[in-house]
Design a protein that fits this description.
single chain, 171 residues, mainly alpha, 53% helix, rod-shaped
């Protein structure tokens, strides 16, 4: 819900609500009156009925400073569409590899060859997205018994000392 509010703020800042375009108003009304619609539903409706508004609706969202909104946006972009691929490429070229890591990972998750080439062309980005082995964790839920104490060397058994004046038996 919070991301939808941020999206609306971005569209207000872009003065989309003031535009006289009835088709644009219809999309904005749909987005405002269907708060229960998830991003998948909103993206599907946008593609079906409002894709001609791409250049007005999507760039303000991509320019947002809200990382979660941008991640959602990039997850729902289709790199097979030229406008969407161009938006991703522009973002990749200007992205800060450290600060924009969540968005770059979302773009990389699309597994598109053109996107992968663009990501690979940025050295800082390519190394950041390289798969790394999972971290190894120390076993913490198993108690390892302590080693048993070393046994003291056994003392040699001495035969009982003979009492003076007595002869040992069997002689």
């Amino acid at each position: 819900m919070f991301q939808r509010n941020v999206a609306k703020q971005r569209w207000v800042a872009a003065k989309l609500y003031q535009a006289p375009d009835a088709h644009l108003k219809a999309f904005l009304d749909y987005a405002d009156t269907n708060p229960a619609a998830c991003w998948d539903d909103l993206a599907a409706q946008f593609r079906k009925d409002y894709y001609d508004l791409f250049d007005r609706i999507v760039p303000p969202l991509a320019a947002s400073s809200d990382r979660a909104l941008r991640v959602q946006l990039f997850v729902h972009l289709d790199p097979k569409q030229p406008k969407e691929l161009a938006l991703m490429r522009d973002f990749i070229r200007s992205a800060d590899p450290a600060a924009d890591q969540p968005e770059l990972r979302a773009i990389a998750s699309l597994k598109d060859s053109a996107v992968q080439k663009e990501l690979a062309s940025r050295p800082g980005v390519a190394s950041m997205l390289a798969p790394s082995p999972p971290p190894r964790r120390a076993v913490t839920n198993v108690r390892v018994p302590a080693a048993p104490p070393a046994a003291a060397p056994a003392a040699e058994a001495r035969p009982p000392a003979a009492k003076p004046g007595r002869k040992p038996r069997g002689t």
